[in-house]
Amino acid sequence: MQPEFTIALAGNPNSGKTTMFNALTGARQHVGNYPGVTVTKKEGVVNSQGKSVKIVDLPGTYSLTPYSEEELAARSFVVDEKPHAVIDIVDANTLERSLYLTVQFLELGVPVVVALNMMDEVRRRKIRLDSARLADLLNVPVIETVAREGEGKQEMLKEAIEFAQQNKGSELNPVRISYGEDIDKALDEMEQKILAARFMTDRLPARWIALKYIEGDEEVLARGRKADALSMELEATSHKLAKHVRTTLDTSPEALIADHRYGFISSILRQGVVKKDVTQERINFSDRLDKVLTNTFLGPLIMLGVIYGMFQLTFAVGEIPMGWVEEFFGWLNASVTAAMPDGLLRSLITSGIIDGVGGVLGFVPLILVMFFCLSFLEDFGYMARMAYMLDRVFKMFGLHGSSVMPFIISGGIPGGCAVPGVMAARTLRSPREKLATILTAPYLSCGAKVPVFVLLAAAFFPQYGADVLMMITLGGWAMALIVARVLRSTVIKGEPTPFVMELPPYRIPLFRGVLIHTWERGWQYIKKAGTVILAISILLWAAMTFPGLPENQAQQFEQQRVQISQTIDEVKAADANPEALANLEDKLAQVDNLEAEATLKNSAAGRAGTALESLSSLAGFDWRTNIALVGGFAAKEVIVSTLGTAFSLGEVDPEAADSLSARLAADPAFTVWSAISLIIFTLLYAPCFVTVVVIAKEAGWKWAAFSVGFNTVLAFSLATLVYQVGSSL
Q1: b/e burial code for range 575-595 (CB count within 10 A of at least 16 → b)
Q2: Which burial class, exposed, middle or buried, applies to 278 when counting CB atoms under 10 A from its CB (0-12, 13-18, 19+)?
Q3: How far lies 339's CA from each of 128, 334, 538, 677, in Å?
Q4: In this structure, are residues 658 and 678 in contact, taking their beta carbons and an 8 Å threshold?
Q5: What is the pLDDT of residue 170?
Q6: Cα separation, 565 vs 699, whole angstroms
Q7: Helix, strand, or coil here: 51?
C-alpha cells in the first residue's frame, strides 16, 4: 500500500534533523541512494492521524543553491518529487542563520512547517522565543521540539499532515522578497519573459527561476539550456546585472541577495519573536568548553588522550565478550566435527564457514565498543572540533580542513569505512583537494582492517593492544598526510582554498540515540560478514581445498600412517613404556598435519601463494599469508577469515591451539617483525573492491587504478624495508 503523504525532513547539518527522523521512524526505515548520485537516502513509513506517511530524511544543507552532491540531492528531491510538505528542522539557538534555508523554501513556494528544535537549550539559556508570533509572520505552522527526547514530534507531524492537506492541489504561492532596486528590476524583467514563454514554469515559480539565473545556479542553467533558447537571453541579463552591481556597489548579486534575505529574517525576529538579545548573552557552556578543548596547545594533547582512552576502553570492555564469542565458535566447530563424518562437507562447514566467518564475527564485541565511543563523540559535538584543530596541520600537507571529516569517517578514529569517507569528500569545492583526500583516505584504520590489527596484536603484543592500535592509527594519519603532500607537490598541484566550518554546540548525547547509531554501524559489519565475507570465504575454501594431493603423495602419507599405527598396536600389546606410546601418537599427528599442509599447499590458492612467495618473502609473508592478502583485495575482513581457514586446513589437531592468534604466535613462519610488516601492508595496500568502485565514481577509473597500484607498491616497499631492517637487528 502506497503512503498517502510524503513529508521531507530538511535542515542545516547539526540541526537535529536525523535525530528527529530516528525519533519518528525508529526501526521502520531503510536506506538507498538518490537517483543518479551516490548520496544516501533514508526513508521510513509511519502512521499518524490514521494516515500512512512516508518520511524522507534529506541530506543536511545550508542553502538551496547547491555546492555539493548532498545539497543538490536535497533540492532535487523537493523540486522533482514534490513532497506534500517539508518540515524544516531549525536550530532554535541560531535562529537568524537557520531561517535562511526556511526563507528559500518559502521563495520556492513549497508547503513548509518550521520545527524550532533544541528548545531545551533555548530555555536553559533563558531565551524566550514566541513561536506563535513567528508562525503569524511567516504564515506557516511553527512547532517547538526537542528531537533527542521526542518532544513535539507528534504535534509537528500532525501539523505537517494538516498543512499538506490544505495545500494539496493548490497553486504555488511563493514569498516575494525585495532585493534592492537593481536586482528587483532585473527579476521583474526576467520573470515576465519566463511567464510569457512558459519556461520551466510547469514545475518551478517564474521568479525563483530568475533568481537562480542571477545567482548563477549551475544545475538550473544546465536544465534551462536544454529547455529553451530563452536561457541564453536570461543569462545575458544576469551577466549584465552582475557587471553593473560590481561597478556600482563593488559586490556580487549573490552577496546582495544573501544580505537582503538576512535582512528579511532580521526584520521578522525583531517583531517580538526573540525576547532577549542573543548577541549580548554571556559566554555559554560550549564557548567556555572550547576555550580548553580547542586551545592551540592543550587541544591536540586532549584529542590524542581522547583517542587513546577510547582504545583502552575498547580493549578493557570488549575483551571479555570477545572471548565468549571465540569460545562459542570453538564449541560450534567441535560440535559439528563430532556430529558429521569426515569429508568435504564437514571441511566446508568447519574450516570454510565457521573458522572463516567466525574469525571475523569474533571481533564484533570490540567493534561495537569502538562504534559506541565513536557515536558518542559525534553526537557530543567533538568530531567537528577535531576537524577545526587539524585544519592548520592539513594546510601544511596541501589538504583542506574539510578533508578532516572524510579522514575521520574513513577510520581516522578506527572503526570507520573508506566508502562513506570517500563520498564525504564531495563537500570539498576544490577538485584538487578533493582528489588528494579521496586518494589518501583509504590509508586510515577502517573497521575492516581493525580485526587484522587486533588479531596480530593479540598474537604478538598481548599486553599492549591499546598501545599498538594507537600507534597504527597515528601511522595511518602520518602516511595519509605525507602521501597527500607528495601528490599535491607532483601530480595534483594547485593553490589551497580557505576553510570555514560550523562548530555545533556541545550536547550530552541521548543514550538511546548512541545505541541506535552503534547498532546501525555494527549491523553493517555483521551483515557484511554474513553475506560478502561468507561468499568469499566459501570461494577461498574451495580454492584452498582443490585439486587436492596427487594420488601417489596421498598414498605415501597413508603408508606412513599405517606403519605408525601398526607400531602403536604392537607397543600397546607389549604394554610398553607410556612415554614411547605418546611419542608414536605425536608422530602420527605430525603425519596428519604434514598431509593437511601439503594438501593446502597443492591447492589452487596454495600454488598461487607459493608462486608469490619468492617476492613476498622479502616482506616476511609466507604462502598462507599471501592467500589471505590476495583475498583482502575484495574486502579486508577476508584476511582474518582466510588465515582462519588456512590454519584450520593446515592444522588437523583441534587441541593444538585454542585460537587463531595462538596459532599464529606458535607458527615458526610468523615472527614479531613479519607481524609488524603485515600490519603495515594491510594498513596501506590497495583499497577494498567496493572502495575502488566508489573512487572510480567520484574521480574516474584512471585514479581508481592509480590508487590500487600506487598503494600496493608503497605498502610492499615499506613492509619490506621494516621487515629486512628489523630482522637484521
Answers
A1: eeeeeeeeebeebbeebbeeb
A2: middle
A3: 71, 9, 21, 40
A4: no
A5: 65
A6: 64
A7: strand
Question: Is the pLDDT at 78 greater than 60, yes or no?
Answer: yes
Are 436 and 484 in contact by the 8 Å Cβ rule? The answer is yes
DSSP label of 621 = -
Q: Which residue has cell 514534490?
A: 82
Share of the chain above pLDDT 90, in %: 23
Beta carbons of 336 and 346 less than 8 angstroms apart: yes
In terms of DSSP bridges, do strands 29-33 and 40-48 run parallel, antiparallel, or are they unpaired?
antiparallel
What value does the mean pLDDT take over residues 550-578?
81
Of the candidates 32, 98, 108, the residue with the CA atom closest to the CA atom of residue 75: 108
Determine the average pLDDT of the residues in 81-109.
91
pLDDT (0 to 100) of residue 37: 43
* Residue in the structure block whose three cell numbers are 564475527: 361
Residues 6 or more apart whose Cβ sits within 8 Å of residue 323: none
pLDDT the model gives residue 659? 66
SS3 at position 44: strand
Tell me the pLDDT band of 55, cut-offs 50, 70 and 90. very high
Lowest mean pLDDT among 21-35, 179-193, 472-486: 21-35
Q: Residue 620 pLDDT more than 90?
A: yes
Burial of 568 (0-12, 13-18, 19+ CB in 10 A): middle
**Sign of the four-CA dihedral 681, 362, 523, 381:** negative
Rounded CA-CA distance 493/610 in Å is 42
Strands of the sheet with 5-11, listed across from one edge: 29-33, 40-48, 51-57, 5-11, 85-91, 112-117, 142-144
Answer yes or no: are the C-beta atoms of 626 and 608 closer than 8 Å: yes
The 10 Å Cβ neighbour count of residue 272 is: 12
What is the per-residue pLDDT for 497?
Answer: 66
Indicate whether 457 pLDDT > 60. Answer: yes
Q: Are 683 and 715 contacting, i.e. CB atoms less than 8 angstroms apart?
A: yes
Whose CA is closest to 410, among 436, 385, 437, 430?
437
Does residue 174 register a pLDDT over 90? no
Of 351, 597, 605, 457, the residue nearest 613 (C-alpha): 605
For residue 172, the 8-state DSSP code is P
Which of 624-647 are b and which e, b meaning 16 or more Cβ less than 10 Å from the residue's Cβ? Answer: bbbbbbbbbbbbbbbbbbbbbbbb
β-strands 142-144, 51-57 pairing:
unpaired
Q: Which one of 207-221, 362-376, 534-548, 713-727 scores highest in mean pLDDT?
A: 713-727
Side-chain half-sphere CA neighbours of 697 within 13 A? 18
CA-to-CA dists, residue 554 to 45, 214, 562, 652, 656, angstroms: 61, 81, 12, 16, 23
DSSP 10: E
